[in-house]
Amino acid sequence: MNKRLIMLLPLAVFVVLALFLGKGLFLNPREVPSPFIGRPAPQFALAEVGNPARSFSPKEMLGKVWMLNVWAPWCVSCRQEHGVLMQLKDQGVVIVGLNWKDKDREAAELMARMGTPYVINLEDLDGRVGIDYGVTGTPETFLIDKQGIIRYKQTGPINAEVWTEKLEPRMKEMAK
User: Fold this and answer.
1) In what order do the strands lie in the sheet with 150-155?
2) 105: helix, coil or strand?
3) In 3D, which of 20, 5, 25, 171 has the Cα closest to residue 91?
4) Could you tell me if 61 and 93 are in contact, meaning their C-beta atoms sit under 8 angstroms apart?
5) What confidence tens digit (pLDDT) does each residue in 104-163 have?
6) What are the distances in angstroms from CA 51 to CA 56, 84, 138, 176?
7) pLDDT of 51-100, one tens digit each?
8) What is the pLDDT of residues 30-54, one digit of tens each?
9) Domain 40-175, CATH among 3.30.420.10, 1.20.1260.10, 3.30.450.20, 3.40.30.10
10) What is the Cα 1 distance to its own chain's centre?
11) What is the DSSP string of 57-74?
């Protein structure tokens, strides 16, 4: 009996590993779960891009549903989502920009040329605020409710499909 168990053990281990690896084939690698969902948004105070005299803190947004969009001028995907963000701004969606690790300080010129979808665009030159939010790359967008709680994290660019299927329903629910 023990010989049979010993012989079946490698097969059982193989089956378990195959199940885990097989499940992984159906996961979206762009969807990184965030430990911040359901927790208060990290607090910070940052200067506005191109206007260091004006600063912003998430405390200013209490009572509002808003999006924190982490982007960078060097990010190709960020440029792809720019047009959608401009449309959302025109629809009254409140978006705060977090210009992440823009060492060359290209954001002000880029926004002057392309237009800005943000109510305020903040400089996170050293990336510390991004680290506090668990940012792994750009673009990433956080939905934050009226109480300052992060309710959702979108990894990757926002397009029409992402907006209508993921973000808009959540924002409508949070606005109630």
Assistant:
1) 51-56, 46-48, 120-124, 95-100, 66-71, 140-144, 150-155
2) coil
3) 171
4) no
5) 889 999 999 999 999 999 999 999 999 999 999 999 999 999 999 999 999 999 999 999
6) 11, 25, 23, 34
7) 999 999 999 999 999 999 999 999 999 999 999 999 999 999 999 999 99
8) 555 667 899 999 999 999 999 999 9
9) 3.40.30.10
10) 55
11) -GGGGTTS-EEEEEE-TT
Model pLDDT, residue 128: 96
- Write down the residue that tokens 């109510």 correspond to: 119
Determine the 3-state secondary structure of 43 from DSSP: coil
Give the side-chain half-sphere CA count within 13 A for 158.
26
The rounded distance, in Å, linking the Cα atoms of 23 and 88 is 35
Q: What does the block give as tokens for 71?
A: 């982007």
Name the one residue in this structure whose structure tokens are 């911040």: 36
Boundaries of every domain in the chain? 40-175
Q: Which two tokens stand for residue 68?
A: 């924190």
Residue 29's pLDDT is 53
